[in-house]
Sequence to fold (192 residues):
Amino acid sequence: MQPKTHVVDGVTFVATPYRAGTFIREDVFWRQFTITCQGQVEYPEDDPTYGTYWVPSILELGERGLIEDAMALALACVSEHEFDLNPDSDALDFRPELVLVRDSLNRLVLTGQVWGAGIRWSEPITSDEEAAAVAKQVDDLRGEASYEAGWDNYSTAEGLRLRARVLAGRLVDPFWQAHARRAVQASTAAVA
Fold:
């Protein structure tokens, strides 16, 4: 779906599908969503005998103007394992875990967990009650992770923290909930 454009005094504006009757300057519209990916970057040890180690990191995948385009960019990066590690000359590889889409005001629009060569998009919450329940579950998972880390169960703790981040991804900004839900449902229907 390509939004309609209008030219006023030589400047192109795009009719945003997210707010009826609103026009955004074209250059601003096409970069209103920033797509990032949380994951682990692999580095070589100083002594090659010890192999490599992994460090949590966030990579920017790009910017898009439509939620569906942001989802497509993220899926292309994940499925083709195309991540820009150029700024970091020592990085060997990137293991993606979680994709986040945010708007120009840094509000959460959509989140998806990387699953194999695909992405499981999180269904945004639908009510304040559901938001409270999800927030409680996130707090519980973080508490469990803290407990496990205290017992030196770091792998278990990291798994629980990831589950908490994935679940927290359902807490989409209220303005974007309906739009994100439609995009997730459309992508699910396209796959089925």
Notes: Helices lie at 26-29, 67-79, 128-150, 154-168, 177-191. Strands lie at 5-8, 11-15, 23-25, 33-44, 52-64, 93-103, 108-115, 118-121.
